[in-house]
């Protein structure tokens, strides 16, 4: 649950369901962090969306930090 709370400030107004979250990732992240390009050796499309289980939580925390620091669009 801690990982999910990290994303609330940034994604809180965007996330109403899984489709909206996936659309955000597709529109803003996957072009640089997807199957065709892996900037920073990170593929957003392969990270676990199971936030409750905490899988890939360290990577999602890094994504959140970079977005909040203005390093990602």
Describe it for me?
The protein has one domain (2-68). The mean pLDDT is 82. α1 runs parallel beside α3. With 73 residues, the protein is mainly α. The chain is built from three helices and no strands.
Task: Provide the descriptors you would attach to this structure in a database record.
3 helices; globular; 73 residues; mainly alpha
Question: Number of DSSP helices?
Answer: 3
Major beta-sheet overview: none
Class based on secondary structure composition and strand pairing? mainly alpha
Rg, alpha carbons: 12 Å
Give the percentage of residues in beta strands.
under 5%
What is the total tally of β strands? 0
Query: For the residues shown, what is the average pLDDT?
Result: 82
Low-confidence stretches: none
In quaternary terms, these chains amount to single chain
Global geometry: globular
Kindly, what is the distance between the CA atoms of the first and last residues, rounded to a whole number of angstroms? 26 Å
Number of folding domains? 1
Give the SSE order as H and E letters: HHH
Provide the helix percentage.
40-55%
Quick structural gist:
The protein is mainly α.
Strands, helices and their partners?
Elements: H1 2-11, H2 18-28, H3 57-68
């Amino acid at each position: 649950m801690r990982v999910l709370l990290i994303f609330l400030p940034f994604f809180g107004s965007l996330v109403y369901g899984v489709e909206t979250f996936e659309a955000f990732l597709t529109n803003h992240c996957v072009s640089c962090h997807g199957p065709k390009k892996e900037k920073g050796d990170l593929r957003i499309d392969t990270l676990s969306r199971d936030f409750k289980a905490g899988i890939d939580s360290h990577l999602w925390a890094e994504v959140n930090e970079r977005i909040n620091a203005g390093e990602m669009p």
